[in-house]
Write a structure and sequence with these properties.
The chain contains 24 helices and eight strands. The chain is α/β, with parallel strands linked by helices. Strand 3 and strand 4 form a beta hairpin.
């Protein structure tokens, strides 16, 4: 593999190039820690006066573009896009902070503006990011303003955070040193090893080799580059390569768009897809990210058809994993990784809707009984869930066999053994809020159904959007000193703002707000308090018993 790496300062890297991040690459995902590390590197380079090597950048040379009398190379970033994006944001923050009143700083401000935003009819910017449907990055580079109202993905939020942190870094820098020194340090003291490769057939393999030991590159991103590299490595059909690569680009664009606000789910989906891909044995645990990537590569083989097939399988898995995580009512029963693996397998199997619902109901009933009500930890039932999920995905087991196997997983967690009497419900607030919210949600559904109504979806949407504890209302307030304040009979649900507004008020003072809450369980409590103007220990015990009867009926086999 013939490479011609260039050791470039940031000034030379940015000179004469326009950078593009293709949509089949991961969106901007740097967090505060990575940005803080970059700021530290800049400070150390300034203090020492020596050059500081930052990273290796890999780019695919695409074309050239003339803007006025200047000609620019257009390069697609394959590796290093997170760092380049952050540097561009930082340069914009410096431009914003520079004064136009002083001749020297005014010139530097104009130079920076011209570097970041090319003055042609299309307002070409130095860097065009991917997945910028809200134009957060583009608008910031053009106007210097960021609007949090425009964000729609985690990448948008990360970019907004980056702009704020870069502005603070610039502001703090000015306390001791000049912005001219800051700009000079970035331009002349920070350097990279830059691989500018014209042949797409090798660019992904270069990425793979350079990051074979890299800790910052996620395995799902490595898998993408390995699959793309294999298209060129194992096929001599030029048209097949072009078509295959186009299809691969489309798949990975969809993967990153699906991940959206939850980029962290990519590695979970990779682990699931790699485990599903195994064919030599029934797995007893979910593969690590590295082993899952290797398994996908093995199954993908050397044919474009199978390479595309494996990428498509991963895309489908990403979609279902996100679907599961995005369902707020499944947050409590789906908190265990290997339990989610089985649910994902059921969803991927594409049963008809009635059978799928029956299977997911059985999965939810057993899973919540074990890990929610039974409080089992994540070390329990790993092999049972993984082996069953694998069999479901491989289609070696029928619906009735799946149902029997799910029931068998929960055999040693029968509902009467899990709920051991009145004391079981004494401490339901601390450390059990996610599960409690789910129980009270299901109880609210139950009460609404009994009177032929639907639950108040608007109020529950407010509750799901926030931390569980912020919506759990103590009927008798916590400052009362009563021994039963954390008992489930003394706990109900309210939207967070309503809950916090009631503070330490007495039950009689809160009853009217309860009856107006739109939540069936809370309305019921409000009506009972209105009758008696109190909420006694006997009331708590009675409500506890009513909820327990519902729970035992709902989560029994």
């Amino acid at each position: 593999m013939q490479l011609n790496p260039m050791h470039l300062t940031v000034a030379k890297l940015l000179d004469g190039r326009l950078f593009r991040i293709p949509e089949y690459q991961r969106a901007y995902s740097w967090q505060k820690k990575q940005r803080a590390d970059l700021f530290k590197d800049i400070q150390e380079a300034h203090n020492s006066g020596r050059e500081h090597f930052m990273a290796t950048i890999v780019a695919l040379s695409r074309d050239t573009k003339a803007i006025g009398a200047d000609e620019y190379k257009i390069v697609e970033l394959v590796d290093g896009q997170q760092r380049i994006t952050t540097i561009v944001v930082l340069l914009k923050a410096i431009e914003q902070a520079l004064s136009a009143d002083d001749k020297q700083t005014a010139k530097m401000k104009a130079d920076l503006s011209e570097l970041l935003l090319k003055s042609d009819d299309h307002e070409m910017i130095l860097l065009q990011t991917n997945h910028d449907s809200s134009s957060v990055f583009k608008d910031y580079i053009k106007t210097g303003e960021v609007s949090e109202d425009e964000r729609s993905t985690s990448a948008d939020q990360n970019l907004i955070d980056a702009a704020k942190e870069c502005a603070r870094f610039v502001e703090n820098w000015q306390q001791n040193d000049s912005l001219i020194e800051l700009y000079g340090t970035i331009r002349n003291r920070l350097s990279v090893i830059f691989h500018e490769i014209a042949d797409e057939a090798i660019v992904y393999r270069v990425f793979e080799v350079l990051n074979s030991r890299g800790l910052d590159v996620k395995w799902i991103d490595k898998t993408k580059s390995q699959l793309m590299a294999s298209i060129f490595e194992y096929s001599n059909d030029q048209k097949g390569q072009v078509d295959g690569l186009h299809e691969m680009h489309t798949i990975w664009k969809a993967i990153y768009q699906n991940l959206g606000l939850r980029q962290d789910l990519g590695d979970e989906a990779l682990r699931f897809a790699g485990t599903f891909a195994k064919s030599d044995e029934d797995p007893r645990k979910i593969l690590s990210e590295e082993k899952a990537s290797q398994e996908i590569q093995r199954v993908a083989g050397r044919e474009i058809k199978t390479l595309i097939g494996c990428a498509s399988d991963l895309q489908r898995t990403v979609k279902v994993v996100k679907q599961l995580h995005d369902n707020p009512r499944l947050r409590a029963p789906a908190k265990i990784l290997h339990a989610r693996f089985l649910a994902v397998a059921i969803l991927l199997r594409k049963f008809d809707k009635a059978k799928e619902k029956e299977l997911l109901n059985a999965w939810e009933r057993v899973t919540f009984r074990i890990f929610g009500l039974g409080d089992a930890d994540a070390r329990n039932k790993i092999a049972d869930y993984v082996m069953l999920g694998f069999a479901v995905h491989k289609k070696t087991i029928s619906v009735s066999e799946i149902l029997d196997a799910i029931l068998e997983i929960g055999e040693d967690y029968q509902i009467d053994d899990v709920i051991t009497g009145p004391k079981y419900w004494d401490e339901c607030y601390k450390g059990w809020t996610e599960e409690l919210r789910y129980v009270l949600f299901r109880y609210d559904e139950h009460l609404a159904a009994n009177v032929g109504e639907e639950i108040n979806a608007l109020q529950w949407e407010k509750i799901w959007q926030n931390d569980a504890s912020s919506s759990i209302e103590h009927i008798v307030p916590q400052n009362s000193g009563r021994s039963d304040i954390h008992n489930i009979g003394n706990l109900t649900m309210l939207p967070p703002k309503v809950n916090s507004s009631l503070g330490g008020k007495s039950p009689s003072e809160k009853a009217e707000r309860y009856t107006d809450s739109g939540l069936r369980g809370t309305i019921q409590v409000g009506k009972e308090i209105t009758k008696s103007q109190k909420w006694t220990k006997a009331d708590v015990a009675r409500r506890r018993d009513e909820i327990e009867a519902f729970v035992k009926d709902e989560w029994a086999d």
